[in-house]
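Email to the structure team, subject: Sema domain-containing protein model.

Hi all, the expression group asked for a predicted structure before they design truncation constructs. Nothing fancy, just the C-alpha cells so they can compare against earlier work. One-line instruction: predict Sema domain-containing protein, return C-alpha cells.
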Amino acid sequence: MCHFLIVNVHLRCHLTSLIVKPSFLFLPEMASWVSTLFFLIWLSVSQAQEGSGKIPTVEFISESLINNVVQDPQTGRIYLGAVNNIFQLSPSLQKEARTETGPKKDGKTCTPPASGCQDTVLMPNSNKLLLVHPSNGSLIVCGSRYRGICSLLNLSNVEQELYYNDNKGQRTYVASIEDNVNVVSVMSTYTKNGRTFKVFLVGKGYGSLDSPKLISTRILEDYQDWVVFENIIVASAVQTAPFVLKYLHDFQHAFKEDGFVYFLFSRTLDGTDNKILTFVSRLCENDQHYYSYTELQLTCGIKNQYNKVQAAYVAFPGKELARVMSQSGNYGTVTSFTKVLFMVAHPDDDESDSALCMYPLNSINQQLMDIISHIDVYLCTPAQWILNHTIKTWLKCRLSTLIKGFQNFLVLFV
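Reply from the structure team: attached below.
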C-alpha cells in the first residue's frame, strides 16, 4: 500500500547553521517516482499562507506501487502512474478518476497484439512514464505491457482513452517490459519542411528486450511515413548497443531550460570500474541530430559519498537559501531567481542513507562549456550551429575522461 502524504518537517543543513522548513512528501520507498517529492514541496509551500503555524496534512492511498507523478499546470490536477492503475487527483489529492491498465495477457517476448503471441499469461502493467500534453488535452502513458507501448488518455477524465494502437510494431516501443529499467521524458517540438510537430524526448536505460536507444524523440501524430509514438531521429551517438555492458545507464529525471534539454542519470564510468557515478547530460532542444550532447559528472558529499541519484527537481532556491549558498563560496553568486537543481542521492551500496545536494544551473552550464571547449562538438547559438571540427572527433570524445566533476559542498542530510 502506497501513502501519498504531505506534512511539515525540519531539515538541518549539515555544513551550515541554516534550517529550512519545506513540506516533504513521505514515500514508502525511494522509487523512481520520488522525483515528485520536490515538486510537491514547492507546490505545498507556495499554497501555504505566510506566517501560518500549520500546513494542512492531506493524503492519498494507493493499493499498488506508485511509479511516477505529474501535474497539469493549467488545472493543478495530479496524475499518478501506479502498477496496473492510473489515478487522476484534484490539487488537494481527492480522487477524481481511475483507469485500470492491467493485469493483462502478455509475454516477455510478445510482439503485440497478444492474439498473435503464444504462451501469454496475465502480467502486471507497470506505468513507467506519464507526461502532460496540454495542447491537445491528453496524458501520455507508457507502461511495461507489450514491451513498452504508449497510449493517450483524456486529461479531464483518464477513464477515456483517446488513442491506443498495438499494431505498429517495434518502432513504437517507448518504455520497457523490465521492472528495473527507468524512463524519463520531457515535451518538446520538432520542425520539418516548415511544419512544427509536438514531440517528447525520452531517456531510457537498457533492457535485454528493448531497443538500443538511450535517448529518442517520439512524435505525437501520424505524418507521412511516421506513426504516433515512433522515434523520428536516428543518432548513433546515443545508442546503448556499444555501451550497455559497460555503462548501465539509470535515468531519473529530465527537464528543459533556456533552449536546452537535460537528463539526469547514473552509470558506471567505464568497463574497468563498476563504481556508479551520477551525470547530467545536455543537448540543444533544436538539435535534430543530438550532435550537441554533452555529459557532466555530479558529485555529492565529501569524496562523492552519495554517488547514485535517486530523484531530482529544478526550482528557485528562495532568498535565505540563495544567501547561504552565495556566502558559502562554493556556488558563485546565487539569487532567488537562480534556477537550482536539487538532487537526492545515496551510496550505491546503502539505499538507507541519503543526502540532498544542490547545483545552480548556471554553474552546471559553465562546467559544460568548459568541457565543450576541450572537445569537438556542436554549440547552440540563437541563430546558427557552430561546428568546431568534425562529428567523428566528437563521437570519439563523448564518453572520454575529459568529463569533469562538479563538486558540491553544501549537503542537506535527510
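The two ends are 23 Å apart (CA to CA). The longest helix spans residues 36-47. Ping us if the truncation boundaries need rechecking.
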